[in-house]
Protein 1
Amino acid sequence: MAKRTSSFVHTGQPQSAWTADKTNSNVPVYFEHEASKQARKLHQSIVKLEKEKRTLLGEMKALEARAMHGWTGMSRRQVYSVVMLGIIVTAIVIFVPPLFIVPFASENLPLTTLDKQTKLVSYLREIQSYSNIFLAVHGYDHKCPIDGSTGYEFTCPTGELSIEEINWRINAGIEIFKKCGLEIDTYAFPGQDYDQRVLSVLSNYYPTPSVYNKTNLIGLGLTGNSSLTDLIIYYGFKEYTWMWRNGVSQEQFQNALNQLKQDKPSLLLVHVQDITNQTLDLLKEYALIQGSAGIIRLDDVTFDSQVEATKKVVDIAMAYNVSLVLAVIPASPYAGTSNSFFSGPMINALWVISTSLFVFPIVVMIPWAFIFKMKKRKPYAKWNPHYPAVSIILPAYNEEKTIAQSIERSLSQRYRGSIEIVIVDDGSTDRTYDIAKTYADKHANIKAIRLEKNQGKSHALNIGFAQAKGEISVFSDTDSSLAPDAISRMISHFKDSEVGMVAGMVVVGNEKNLLTRLQQIEYLLSQTLIRFCQSSQKNVLICPGACTAVRTDIAKKITVTDRTVTEDADFTFSVWKEGWKICQEPEALSYTEAPTGLGSLITQRKRWLYGSLQTIAIHKWAARERNPWVLKAWLECFLSPFVLIFLVSLPLQCFFLGSAFPLFLLTYGLLPFTILAISGAVGIRLFNKGKKSKLAFLMPLYAAYQLMMNLLLVWLVLAFVTKRGIRLPRGGKIIHAI
Ligand SMILES: [Zn+2]
């Protein structure tokens, strides 16, 4: 130890000290002592410096990590707030429009009048002559014309009706009865309350109505078959079977029966919707108790579908000679069922599912993308530059028209590291290989490989990866062209040793017509919002075949397969499965030629959508990763049929709503549509390369475009689930994908 440190120590004669030490044992003790003291001191400072070095290195690592995680980072609090915001906005969109639509619909819905219920009318005509059966007009349409609530036809809770309105409604109900050829025995109020003016209006129609005061009205004191040509207003008369339509327990039934036996009401109210075997049993018990002194009032007789239930009650009335008042609704906003069309569980489910599916992700994604965009910083790549060798892989099949341009584009990449270009000609039958060969002959960094027969893009890519010498491989299509700075921008992400793959940003290069512009919106939205947010977690799900960089050693290990029709999606999932992080570089542009016609667009989308289905089905493990994007994809597949149901229900709604339909659509559609339009504009805005803001004006058309794509998805989900599969042109041939 002394020997080594002594060489550092400047003692005035280090060499002699050194040699003396070595050859001569006659070394003064004080020197040894002094030297080791100094040595120890120095050693201590070295230890100290090393410690400091470690701290500094640690700090640097932390800074590096922070610089890189500036890309990743959403704090837990931000995630929670964004999700909360999503939930709140979605809830508003779900619950607010119905608040407006229900009164609106009740005002505007065309009514079904009794004369259209032919089965019911003919039955009523048949029984109206029976001495103990009485027909009653049950209001006009059984609901408050102001807010649509039932039970308050003449005393709407939100405001009283004018005397003209009362007059009109009573008259209209009576007129419909006359039109049906039905004799009116009495008037049966819908609802539990009435306005004194109603009685005066009614007295115009019924010559000598007996107006009862409340105390007299507890059970009308009518007996036997006396005429019921009186107003039947119910205060306190009994109904034991309300909401029995879904059945009740034996205990509930027994309780109601005991109560009935105790009360012995002179008038029993029952709703036709509640006619079940249990209700009929109770009615029989009532008939046994009261006999001809009893009166049953059967409310809400409205539709043909209620004839059977009505018949059963009539049979009891006949058998026990009980008086039966049939309270018939002359006009109704419902059609065919006792449930309102708008409160139907199906419509509700459709509404909730479609809005939350559509609104929630968007409301979460927009602030997410904005937070991420604000945080996005890349100083790391700047002060710690990284220029690994890059191989550009160009698989080509019959691309004599575009191959030269693709090669030129690759050659003109502005990248400080070295670039090699590997063209894999997948058995083309045209001049593709010859063109590639001339470039290869001229440039040392271009390699042209010819495959004897066409084996598909995935195979060509594997060959290309096998030949690649660069640390990073970039693959692209020959129908897309990389921006000159695309590669250098993508490469910066690989500084993070956990990143295995980087997606570029694919934009439409041929914005020629409406269809390509709509596709441009779609490309921008799916990448600036969805993929951008995925990238904030370094978990991009699909790296597009048109512009992607991957570590070559990963690509050599994971083969690209043709088990799906979208090898890029399948490949990305496989890389993710190996534990690699996958990001997106939104500024690495690749201009692609989008289909200009509807036919070719549908062919392309059939492949994309079907390929995605195949991919998530193959990579079922991904659903267990609790990745929100995978769950979203699964959910979209499961719920896609609802879109179809929704579309089918549109003409149905149109039929029910008539002229009110456009207004209805507007009321329901306004909020979701506004959100779609805003998200569209925001998504387009997030793309800061080139002026695309004008595209936001196409958002209304984009909604229709999306609907079309959803329909396509429904069809493909069906083809996938039934294992019928689809036929697709791939490479040179038509393949049948299952
Ligand atoms: Zn009623």
Protein 2
Amino acid sequence: MPAERRRRAVLIGASDIAHQGRMAVKRGIAPMVLVLGFAAVAAAAEWKAPASAKAMKNPVEKIAGLKAGKSLFDTDCAMCHGKTGKGDGPTGAALNPKPENLAGKEVQRQTDGELFWKISEGRGAMPPWNSLSEKDRWSLVRYIRSLAAKK
Ligand code: HEC
């Protein structure tokens, strides 16, 4: 083969491979991105508060916190988390991932500080509640504790 034709053949071959590559990308990447997307959601499923949050102590007295916390919870949280914290509020039902069951073990085994931190920071559909005073957020933690008993 003369050099010029061989070069063209190589070029055509290369563009063919490139074309196939692009088709593979079109066919292959979309499902791959989906799979990676789900993996990311699954990996994000565990939501950990930092160690510094863990040790924070609840400065709000228990009984006072319970009372204030309940009324805050009913207005700000129940639509998603449900009246008893089970994650069955009318707005919560449509969410994916669903709001946690605040009465359940996964939430109750966390420290007050961790819950306070999560309420303050929010994640995804869970709004950050730093518009509420710290005292209100600590009161909410007191109230969430009381949900554990109401199974
Ligand atoms: C718009 C719906 C919505 C509202 C309103 C809402 N939450 Fe949430 N909440 C969520 C969702 C969804 C999650 C799960 C977030 C995640 O894991 O990514 C969550 C998670 C949490 C968690 C962490 C549970 C865990 O995984 O350890 C706490 C604590 C919490 N919410 C408390 C509250 C409190 C207190 C309020 C009211 C001040 C509130 N939430 C209002 C949707 C909501």
